[in-house]
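Shall we go through a protein fold together, starting from nothing but its sequence? Please make up or recall a protein chain and show it to me in full. Go ahead whenever you are ready, and we will take it from there.
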Amino acid sequence: LEQTADSCHAKAAVMASALAGPAVDVHPGQPDHVSGPAILSALTSKGFAVIAQDNGDDFTNGVLSDIKAIDAVERLQPPPRLVAEGLLGEKGAARTFDLSSPEVNPAEWEGSTIRFADRLISQIGELLEPLTPELGFTLAGRTPAVLLETADPSDDPPELTDAEASRWLSTFACAKLLVLHFLGPSWGTLELRVIGDEDDMEPYYVQTTPGMMVVLRADMLLHEHTSAQPSYVLSSFACGERLHWYKKPTGDDLHPAARAIDQWMVNRIMSLKRQADNEDETAMDPSSIPRSMQRIANRMFLKGERAAVLGTSSRISNASDIETLHHTLAYGMDFAVEVPYGRWDHAEHYHPDLEGYHYGKVYSRHCSYAPSLEMFDNKFFLISPAEASKMDVCERQILEVGYEGLARAGLKKKDLMNSDCGIYVGWMSELDVGSEDRGMGANRFSFCLGCKGPSLATDVDHASAMLAVKIAVNELGRAGNQGLAMGCSIIMNPRYWLVHCGAHLLSPAGRTCSFDTGASGFIRADTVASVYVRKLKEKANAEDVWDDSVGFDGVIVAASVKNQGRTASLRSVSGPCLQECFHEALQHAKVSPFDVDIVECHAAGDVMQDGVEVAAIMRAFRPIVQQANSDEPVTLGAAKSSLGNSWVASGMATVLKGLAAGLYGNTPPVVHLSQINPLIHSEVFGQAVNIPCECIDNGSQTSYTSMMAYGWGGTNAQILAWNRVDEQRVFLGGPYRLEKPIFWPGGGGMLTNDELPAKAYTIVGTWSSWTNPQAMEKEDEGVYGYTVTLGENCWEMFQIWLDGDPKRCLHPEEPKAPRLTKVLGPDPTPEGHTWLVEGRTESVPIEGSEAATALGDGTEVSASDKLALQEVGGVDRALIGARYRVRLYATGKYRTVDWERLTGRPEDEAQKAVVAEAAKVLPPSSYCISADWNGWGFEPMTETDTPGVYALDVHLIRLGGHFQIVRNRDLEQVFYPRSGGGLGSEPSSVCGPDDQDEGRSWYLNGRRRNTFRIEFSRVNENGLDVRRVSWTKTGDRDLSEEQKEAAKRTRFAALGSWDGGARLRELKWNGSFYYFFVELGSDGKEEFQLVQDFDWNKIFHPSKPEATMGMDYEVLGPSVGDWRSQGLNWTIGKEGYEKPGDIFEVKVFDKVGYVGSYVRKVEWSKVSSGRDMQEAEDEGLVLRRRRG
């Protein structure tokens, strides 16, 4: 009941705040480097940002005067209802006016106040464009501004038109941001709701005032605007794309406004396609509906044959399936090789003379062949070895490859026996043995597998295999419900080469250079391939029934085979006849020629015929009378350029390549293309055609592919296939996710009692060394605050603990999180997850100057250099002593942390005196040296007589002298050099304090007995932090007996999970054993290994992973620091009694080794609660995880 009452109070507070006025995120006069990140933070946290503008009365009067002029000529008109709902609701968009509409003269409004308001929207876009990648998307541009009138909606809004539906669907679907400029004259209320608010998020209300601007996430929030009196809003969407690879939103994933228009378009398209069924394709003419809608319609609803290709197989060079074939083609592989000895000794037949055919020689020596064709499983097909040995190799391959295609479709021998499956084969034998009956290839297949459908062979030269596909598709539903089309051509005899060389058909260069000016013919190729087809839909009670569960490699929607009749010659290709073939397929499929994305050409490497074929394709698929759109180019492919010419089976290779292009969403390149064929004129292959020299994306997940083959006898065959990208083969992105705001000020849901404090929210941070948590003050319902004074680091980190309990910690989901981030918890103290108030600035050289030093580094900076520097920093940049108000907002189940700078803005001269006084009373800091001579523990420095200067005298007992400076014994506050600080290095720029010190330290370059004095200067100069490190050699001094003993003793250091092994800490010797302390982290477990003499190639570890006290293991080492020692750690926290926060003392016992001493035994015990650990803490012997 108390929580319900609190929820009601919170809702009332939300409404009250809306009525009192908007919470402004960006105030007038803020510079771009401040306002940009402020808008970004608000968009990241709550999904919208409120921007206050101080435009004055002249602006308001001027814009209202412009609106009055617009209304006077009746340009403000009611929009369709579905469009209004996607803008600002039916009331918020009662009437609209598009500033980019055709009837608007651009010069008419130039210099007007409303154009000025439009430019303000553009400035917001320019400000956010480089920042939006942090929101997970990039902006591609903004839509033209639309003027909206907030008033009572029209009782009879106009109907949505096709053009409007197409425009607004694309806008609402890709919109990422919406910028609203409220022009007045009345105040209003902007209601915001989260899309898909299944978590019962309450709406949030923003009071709108004249001149105010709101930027909101259009892909996250629903928005409606109301006002008591008519008011006006200028709006513009910013469209873009997600950075992370997600699937494009469709259906229920769309924005509700886009989803409603999408459903309207689906219904509209269905009615248009039904009309096209009853009439002809002119019902879908672009003059009657937008081309974009026509394109969608023809991809959504298939007409024509609709024969599904359910299985394919191949023996094409080394490609035994469609996947391998596509991938090799996509990489531009060239399959041409010299004729292998497995076929014949081609050296006996080859001579480079182009006229060598007169004396029995051929001038071509290259081909593309498939290996291992002699392999045959005769038992599977119940064929005796004697019969198999007499069979033509083509017949054997037809059996194997044909059955593979059926098997890939999920069929087995028992499914084929007595079935109505038709067998259609285009093949030609080159052997002298075997049957001369061409139909035997198909007939033997039907006999061996018991298929009772039609069984026939085709022979129309290059068009044979494609004719087989055409017959198989046409016979579906007539002679049978399924069919297998095959093509087979195997190079087995050189005599055909002699005929081809006599006709100068083969390429002397040994390559098929399709579309190239240097094309000189083709090379021969092996191809055995099959395609299994079945009806995609069946009739049931006069209705079409689709089987959506069936996966397919493509859908053949039309097939056309025509003979040219009498033309110039029997073997010449006729452009007009090719166009007739294309047009017949398009009419049968009821699609526009502009819907065809890819054309797999015959392209046999003849300059004249390639030019005629491309010209026919362009006239058929991108006719000039239609004024081809450059945004819809047709892509030309040529399988023969990679695979060679497989003669009667070449059509089947073309079909497989075309189907694969649709399955994988990209088109392989045309290889060997160096200079375009001169007969392919520039006006033909310009912006409307692509001849790819590399694999290119199809630009859509669905596509139409036309595949072409023509024979020497004048037979032209063409197949038109529809396909979609197969998500099982191609990763299209992760599931689309609707984003939610991190913190929703409208609230929703409730926190459980375990998530609420019993007394107070408390805050703790670096200002108090993570001790003494302080209660936060309740400022308002669900708002708790605390004032933090910025210390000398110019940054502070903090967490929020419930009732001061570190095991009930509220924290961000990332280390050093900025303001307005998600709040997680309460959890046991999560190491590394804190908020960071970053007040530091950095001085960078002004462009053209030679100054190049960082603010606060240790080098001297001349006055002239200081003038050449400029300060840069974030929105929180401030001086030492600045005060920040940290606030926790808790509304329902949503929480976030924010802060604002109260004092200490560097540009504010009036506050510098107040800030300086606050800096004087800051708690004093202590500084320690952490170095190799003290085992990277803490050795305190003492303050000298000079304020802000600390010193330490060092007596080296070994070579070396690497060191860093640590503030308040906190390894998250380390000072280190900007450079690496290697051997012989001098004092350099001082970086820090932070934890980015890995691998960087100063080096004394000292020897045994040397003494040094290290000084560290840190002063506050006008609120800026200036540091310097220096050292001097002060002499030599003999070592004491204790120092000599320590120098002789083997050193052991621990590395462990508390810091990811980033820092070694030397163990302390007490005369009997080495020891150190470990505090268990939030997971109640820590692991470690030991290192001898700080040498990473001398590691000691247990022989078993996660070794504990009660486990039987051996101590191994010294081992090389490689993969062999990884995972072999001592583990504290696996015996059941340990818990987070427990401190354990680890003892290491040694023994004499070959070099120094070795680890003999490791044991540990829990430290009692009454033991004084202050000395160990001061020396840095207690190893624990960091908070920041």
Residues 1-21, 844-872 have pLDDT under 50 and may be disordered. The domain at 922-1040 is CATH 2.60.40.3620 (Immunoglobulin-like). The CA atoms of residues 13 and 780 lie 9 Å apart. The chain has five domains: 23-262, 309-724, 761-841+875-901, 922-1040, 1049-1184.
